[in-house]
Amino acid sequence: MPPRLVLFTLSLSSLWLVHGCAIGTQRTGKVFDPALVARVKVGTSTKQDVLDLFGPPTRYDRIPGTGDMTLETTDQEWRARFPIETAKAAEDVFTYEYREEPETFFSMLLFTYFSRDVLTDRLMVVFDVRDVVKYIAFVKETDREYEPEEEEEAGE
Question: In this structure, is residue 23 part of a structural domain?
Answer without folding.
Answer: no
